[in-house]
């Protein structure tokens, strides 16, 4: 093969190898070309009108701004970003447009930095609206004022520039001019066709466009057109700067033919609407030559004084100002605390834009001794410009008060500046290591000297904060630790500080332990026949000796089955005779302590008949036996294991403990527990109940004939019951009509007796009392009265609140008091249901004639709808209590309805409802516009004082409230507060109650002993009062809001649960709250103590 042939072959092979790569490259270029497409403007800048000084934004954007950069040009030149013009996301922002700098065409240039493509927007211009600051009046013709005479043709020009051209308004002597037969107004010119004497005056003009106004205040023109006979001023009064108490003179003279008469006028303000004619008086004198003298100048004399000369030809006037000299108060300078050696500069001047007086007062500084300070800048302490006081480097001798003085002819004003040169504090009494006994008090003394008085604080070793209320830092710096605990032992740091520096000293506190039980033994039950022990331990600085004794004969030796070793008393085994009181005595040196416990020997409950699984048949009765014994004798109860339930009256526990089911249902199937419990313990047995259909073995099945007979008997009984009910309703209606007729006859007889004997009093006796309560005439029944409504709650479940809102310490009632408060049910009109409480519904109603002299009164009504005997008793006790209480801050019992079910209790109601809702509304969190203002401090103190007085009255009658809170206090528009008994624990305030031991209890308002030991007392009401005070100052927030009920119960059981003091609570009120929350009930205040403490806190003036 030839060389050329070989070359062709190789080239063909190369091209064949490279050809796919070439194709791929060409396709990539084509794809890239398609992806980078030309962009278009979406927003282009638009021309706009705006006032000079305003801001403008010119918009610019493209449809795809990927890799696109923007720049702007003005008249072809690039615009650089500065403090006035900047580009953000393509938009040009101009802050404070300028008619010179921003004149021309603006264009936006968008450039793709990848492809290099660039596009320029359409031009936009800013039409800047402006007006020059002031105008000027010039004489156009004739060329000189001297050439103007009566009859001359005069042309004035108002020179003012702006865009658009300003509209011109002309004034003569501040009165606006309008065109007439002699005055011609054309654009900026005013032409007088024929000058007259009355055309004389000061000509001014005003230019106005959208940018604002421009006045010729500094460029007015005065025209004087003279007439030989017209009054001409020869001597014009001059402005006077007067001083209070001195005199001022104004000279004025006119000539004319005939001689002008001179009158003086006074104008209070520049508007000229209140001008008064002046005459001779005690402080003013007008002389024959026209001179006005004002004696004993006051500030009321300041204004414009006008001298007018009049004759038959006309009148002319001149005026002058009387300005009364004055000097204003200087701004407050306060004090400056600066470390020693630091510089200090203080400026004493009036606020910007004010002169501080007329004439402008002279300002200067005086040193501590009242001497003027030097103005030499070389001096360490000097003044600059008369107003700036400069300390180049403060020294201790610079302490004191410096005086800034402003003075003019009116007098002087001064203001003091306190300069405190702060020094590093030095200890005068260093804290010393201290030892003190446990449970006593300790004082750690710490004092320091410095300027200003050093701040003394204490910290635990390691900068730990002393937050326990037992730690109190006294005013003299001493740390007082009350009721020392072993954990208080350790290091403490006293820190003294001023603005100039800080020093600290460390001290060690050693706590000497005292003899004490650790812990004290508790009373406990022992099980008969079982080995048991009780342990008594104590601790002290030296190991104590511990002994046990049985009371009342401590010298009697122990029985053989009892062994005492190192504080441990063992019973092997426990016998019934071991019951009694035992004393543990601990001795350490000279210290002796003892404690007494009670031991009861019991027999734990055990079943004598253990319940067994049972099978029941639908429709038939069933008895499940369960009996137990023990000492004390156990109480037996039954409970279902979910989903099974022990339902009443379907299931009944018999006296012997067995469970009797009247008619077994399919839903009764499940697991049940028989519980035998006493103080000795609890035993339980579980059984399973199986329910089947059919007939129990040995029973006779129901036949169709027996079924028909049963149905017939049931229908007959139902018909007889209906006839009985209808008959009773008819009888009751006839009886009620007869009672109404008798009441009406008695009322008419009473009226007739009163008419015959006007001096006689009310009709005596119970009927008279009832008539007075119910009104003079019976009212017709209301269509929606409570009588016509069906009770909404038939009974109460196990979740009811067990304690009544108010429980009397000693029960008892008087039926006579109730009889006087009987109120006709038909005169009660239901308004709205507030909620549901322990007894049933609580609702608002209108009671006709319940208040003497008032047609109808809004009242609160509580309905007794529960079948529980204990709750019915509490309801009666509550009514009895309200019968006996009479106080302005406790709701009054107005009436009751007891003649039919449900019984109703009628009490006062205040217009604004319960206090809780008002406090919550003041927080403004409900989204409404009408938010009541929060209570002021004085109002809060008055509210808690009223409740304290009401509760003092309740406690003095030996009653216990048991549910005191803001939700149970009513509020009137006059800020009158009354303790109430609403206790709507079921719905409205259900979240504020917790179900505990099958009762609804307000645990957030209760002390531990009331929750866990059921010890309700006046002192538990005091605890609740402390929480109520917290609610008032916290605007109705829920106490311990961050804790759920279970966590709250655990914290309450552990102790130490406290509420954080709300912002704005006075210290005295904080102390009061914590006294109400004392751990021991005997350490808490009584309500009398609270009322007395609040009298010392309340402001003098009434709220």
From TrEMBL:
Query: Any idea where this protein resides?
Result: Membrane
Which regions span the lipid bilayer? 711-732
Q: Name one GO biological process term.
A: synapse organization
* Keywords linked to the UniProt accession: ATP-binding, Disulfide bond, Glycoprotein, Immunoglobulin domain, Magnesium, Membrane, Metal-binding, Nucleotide-binding, Receptor, Transmembrane, Transmembrane helix
User: Is-annotated flag, keyword Transport?
Assistant: no
Question: Where's the Ig-like domain?
Answer: 20-127, 133-222, 231-325, 331-420, 425-508, 513-600, 605-688
Molecular function (Gene Ontology), one example: axon guidance receptor activity
Lipid bilayer topology = Single-pass membrane protein
Binding locations of ATP:
835-842, 862, 908-914, 967
Entry annotation: catalytic residues: 963
Cross-referenced CDD domains: Ig
Locate the residues binding Mg(2+): 968
- Keyword hit for tRNA processing: no
Superkingdom of source? Eukaryota
Official protein name in the record: Inactive tyrosine-protein kinase 7-like
Question: What organism is this sequence from?
Answer: Acanthaster planci (Crown-of-thorns starfish)
């Amino acid at each position: 093969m030839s060389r050329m042939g070989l070359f062709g072959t190789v080239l063909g092979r190369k091209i064949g190898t490279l050809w796919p790569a070439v194709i791929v490259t060409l396709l990539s270029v084509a794809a890239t070309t398609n992806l980078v497409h030309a962009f278009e403007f979406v927003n282009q800048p638009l021309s706009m009108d705006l006032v000079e000084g305003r801001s403008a934004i010119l918009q610019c954007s493209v449809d795809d701004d990927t890799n696109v950069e923007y720049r702007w040009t003005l008249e072809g030149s690039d615009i650089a970003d500065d403090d006035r013009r900047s580009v953000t996301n393509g938009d040009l922002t101009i802050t404070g447009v300028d008619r010179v700098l921003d004149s021309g065409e603006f264009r936006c240039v968008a450039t793709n930095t990848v492809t290099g493509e660039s596009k320029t927007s359409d031009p936009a211009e800013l039409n800047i609206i402006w007006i020059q600051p002031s105008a000027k009046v010039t004489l156009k013709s004739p060329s000189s004022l001297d050439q103007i005479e009566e009859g001359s043709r005069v042309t004035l020009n108002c020179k003012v520039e702006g865009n658009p051209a300003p509209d011109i308004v002309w004034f003569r002597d501040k009165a606006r001019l309008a065109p007439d037969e002699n005055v011609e107004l054309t654009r900026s010119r005013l032409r007088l066709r024929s000058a007259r004497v009355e055309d004389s005056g000061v000509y001014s003009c005003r230019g106005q466009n959208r940018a604002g106004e421009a006045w010729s205040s500094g460029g007015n023109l005065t025209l004087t057109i003279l007439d030989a006979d017209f009054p001409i001023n020869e001597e014009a009064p001059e402005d006077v700067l007067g001083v209070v108490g001195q005199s001022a003179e104004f000279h004025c003279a006119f000539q004319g033919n005939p001689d002008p008469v001179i009158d003086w006028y006074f104008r209070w303000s520049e508007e000229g609407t209140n001008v008064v004619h002046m005459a001779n008086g005690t402080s003013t004198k007008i002389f024959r030559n026209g001179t006005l003298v004002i004696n004993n100048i006051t500030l009321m004399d300041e204004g414009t004084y006008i001298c007018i000369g009049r004759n038959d030809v006309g009148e002319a006037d001149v005026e002058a100002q009387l300005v009364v000299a004055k000097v204003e108060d200087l701004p407050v300078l306060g004090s400056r605390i600066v470390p020693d050696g630091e510089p200090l500069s203080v400026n004493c001047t009036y606020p910007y834009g004010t002169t501080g007086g007329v004439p402008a007062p002279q300002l200067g500084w005086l040193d501590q001794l009242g001497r003027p300070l030097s103005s030499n800048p070389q001096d360490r302490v000097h003044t600059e410009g008369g107003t700036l006081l400069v300390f180049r480097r403060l020294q201790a001798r610079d302490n004191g008060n410096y005086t800034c003085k402003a003075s003019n002819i009116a007098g002087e004003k001064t203001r003091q500046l306190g300069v405190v040169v702060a020094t590093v504090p030095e200890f005068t009494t260093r804290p010393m290591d201290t030892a003190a006994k446990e449970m006593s008090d300790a004082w750690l003394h710490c004092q320091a000297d410095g300027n200003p008085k050093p701040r003394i604080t204490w910290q635990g070793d390691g900068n730990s904060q002393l937050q326990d209320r037992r730690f109190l830092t006294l005013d003299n710096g001493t740390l007082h630790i009350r009721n020392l605990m072993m954990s208080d032992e350790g290091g403490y740091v006293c820190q003294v500080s001023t603005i100039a520096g800080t020093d600290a000293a460390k001290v060690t506190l050693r706590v000497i332990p005292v003899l004490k039980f650790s812990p004290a033994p508790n009373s406990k039950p022992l099980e008969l026949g079982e080995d048991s022990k009780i342990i008594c331990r104590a601790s002290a600085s030296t190991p104590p000796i511990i002994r046990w004794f049985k009371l009342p004969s401590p010298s009697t030796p122990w029985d053989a089955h009892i062994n005492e070793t190192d504080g441990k008393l063992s019973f092997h085994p426990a016998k019934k005779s071991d019951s009694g009181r035992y004393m543990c005595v601990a001795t350490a040196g000279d210290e002796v302590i003892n404690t007494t416990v009670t031991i009861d020997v019991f027999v734990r409950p055990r079943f004598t008949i253990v319940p067994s699984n049972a099978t029941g048949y639908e429709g038939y009765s069933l008895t499940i036996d369960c009996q137990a014994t023990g000492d004390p004798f156990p109480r037996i109860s039954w409970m279902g294991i979910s989903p099974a339930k022990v339902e009443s009256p379907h299931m009944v526990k018999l006296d012997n403990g067995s469970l009797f089911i009247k008619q077994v249902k399919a839903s009764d199937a499940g697991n049940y527990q028989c519980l035998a419990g006493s103080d000795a313990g609890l035993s339980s047995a579980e059984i399973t109940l199986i329910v089947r259909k059919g007939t129990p073995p040995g029973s006779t099945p129901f036949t169709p004939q027996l079924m028909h007979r049963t149905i017939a008997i049931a229908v007959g009984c139902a018909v007889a019951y209906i006839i009985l009910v209808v008959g009773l309703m008819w009888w009751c209606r006839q009886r009620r009509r007869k009672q109404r007729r008798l009441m009406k006859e008695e009322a008419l007889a009473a009226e007739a007796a009163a008419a015959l004997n006007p001096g006689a009093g009310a009709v005596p006796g119970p009927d008279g009392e009832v008539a007075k309560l119910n009104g003079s005439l019976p009212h017709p029944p209301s269509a929606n009265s409570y009588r016509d409504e069906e009770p909404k709650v038939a009974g109460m479940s196990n979740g009811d609140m067990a304690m009544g809102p108010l429980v009397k310490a000693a029960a008892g009632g008087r039926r006579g008091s109730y009889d006087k408060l009987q109120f006709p049910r038909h005169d009660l009109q239901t308004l709205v249901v507030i909620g549901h409480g322990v007894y049933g519904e609580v609702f608002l109603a209108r009671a006709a004639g319940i208040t003497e002299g008032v047609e109808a009164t809004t009242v609160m009504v509580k309905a007794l709808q529960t079948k529980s005997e204990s709750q019915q008793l509490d309801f009666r006790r509550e009514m009895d209590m309200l019968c006996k209480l009479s106080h302005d801050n406790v709701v009054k019992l107005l009436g009751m309805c007891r003649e039919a079910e449900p019984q109703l209790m009628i009490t006062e109601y205040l217009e604004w409802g319960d206090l809780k809702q008002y406090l919550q509304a003041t927080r403004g969190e409900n989204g409404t516009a009408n938010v009541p203002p929060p209570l002021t401090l004085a109002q809060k103190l008055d509210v808690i004082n009223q409740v304290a007085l009401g509760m003092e009255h309740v406690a003095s009658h030996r009653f216990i409230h048991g549910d005191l809170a803001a939700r149970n206090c009513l509020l009137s528009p006059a800020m009158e507060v009354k303790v109430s008994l609403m206790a709507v624990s079921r719905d409205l305030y259900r979240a504020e109650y917790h179900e505990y031991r099958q009762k609804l209890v307000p645990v957030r308002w209760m002390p531990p002993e009331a929750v866990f030991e059921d010890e309700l007392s006046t002192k538990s009401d005091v605890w609740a009062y402390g929480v109520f005070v917290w609610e008032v100052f916290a605007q109705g927030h829920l106490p311990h809001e961050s804790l759920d009920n279970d966590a709250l119960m655990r914290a309450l059981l552990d102790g130490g649960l406290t509420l954080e003091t709300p912002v704005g609570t006075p210290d005295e009120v904080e102390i009061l709250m914590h006294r109400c929350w004392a751990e021991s009930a005997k350490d808490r205040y009584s309500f009398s103590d609270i009322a007395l403490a609040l009298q010392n806190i309340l402001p003098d003036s009434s709220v």
